[in-house]
Each structure stands twice: as structure tokens, then as C-alpha cells.
Design brief:
This protein has 170 residues and is mainly α. It contains six helices and two strands, in the order ααββαααα. The protein has a two-stranded antiparallel sheet.
């Protein structure tokens, strides 16, 4: 029973409920029981789930409903999985390596820039490759470096938030 999670940055509680196949009160209860399921709230006070929160909700449901773990057993299992780096039983333990964020645009943006000729239109020749000027290359490198630094900060903030969430709920 593999749910396909849409390529989005944030999900509302109703969307997560639909993906997980549970009601909102169940999801809110899981948030109180599982420190690793900690969606943020927006300015209006609504829960905003990130992809990792949706994945965690799906894993919690799998442990509780499919594998028949108790709440306490599922907590221990998830804590071991997170600590050990293995998501499923039987996976080999790997060295903890921070997840790299992709620099590719999400499909929603990539599709805007993809060009496909309309039916009946003559197909255009591929554009000639233009090489940027040295000062443009330097500016692009500086932008790329800054973007990598931002991604590193986001990864660090994600790790800190998970650590804080786990330690504050103990």
C-alpha cells in the first residue's frame, strides 16, 4: 500500500489525512504521541506538514495498522530507525550522511519552461548554445555558492528542529 506523495513543499492537514487514510483527530493524536511528527503552524495557526512529516505519518500508520505495533512499540521502533538511520527492518545500516537537497527545479516549475511544439507547428531548430561572459560566469558562481549555503542552513535547521523536538518531548 504505497501512497504517492505529491511534489509539494507544504501540505494541509486534510491532504495528509487523505494520503494516510486517517481522520484529522487521529493525526493530531499522533502528533502528541510521536515527537518525530511535528508539523509547523502557519500565521493562521493551521498545521503545515512538510514531505518528511507526511512520510512520518505514513510510517506511523504502517507500524500501527499493518504491523500491529502498540503506540509504545511504534515509538521505540521509530526512535531506533531514526537513531540507526535505517527506515525499514532488514535495511543495512549506513553511515549517517546528511541528505542532499536537489538543485533541480520541482516538476511544477520545470514544466513551465519545457517547450513542446504545438500540433501542426513546424518544429524549431534547437537553440544555439550561448556562452556567458566571464563576469556573468562569476556572478552565477557567486549565486550558486550562496544558494548552496542557504540549502546547508536549511538542512542544519531541519536537524536542529528534529533534535529540539525530540528532546523537548522526552
Amino acid at each position: 500500500m504505497a501512497s504517492v506523495i505529491p511534489e509539494k513543499l507544504f501540505f494541509k492537514i486534510g491532504e495528509v489525512c487523505e494520503l494516510a487514510g486517517v481522520q484529522a483527530h487521529v493525526l493530531r493524536y499522533w502528533e502528541t504521541e510521536f515527537p518525530m511528527l511535528a508539523p509547523q503552524k502557519n500565521r493562521a495557526g493551521q498545521r503545515t506538514y512538510r514531505r518528511r512529516d507526511v512520510e512520518m505519518a505514513l510510517r506511523i500508520k504502517e507500524l500501527l495498522y499493518d504491523e500491529q505495533y502498540t503506540i509504545a512499540g511504534a515509538k521505540k521502533k521509530l526512535a531506533n530507525e531514526i537513531r540507526g538511520g535505517a527506515i525499514r527492518e532488514g535495511e543495512t545500516r549506513t553511515a549517517a550522511k546528511p541528505a542532499m537537497r536537489s538543485l533541480k527545479p520541482p516538476p511544477s516549475l520545470a514544466s513551465r519552461f519545457a517547450s513542446s511544439p504545438n500540433a501542426g507547428e513546424k518544429e524549431l531548430q534547437p537553440p544555439q548554445k550561448l556562452s556567458p561572459k566571464p563576469e556573468e560566469k562569476q556572478a552565477l558562481r557567486a549565486i550558486a555558492k550562496e544558494l548552496r549555503e542557504i540549502l546547508d542552513l536549511l538542512d542544519e535547521s531541519d536537524r536542529d528542529a528534529m533534535a529540539n523536538s525530540a528532546s523537548s518531548r522526552k
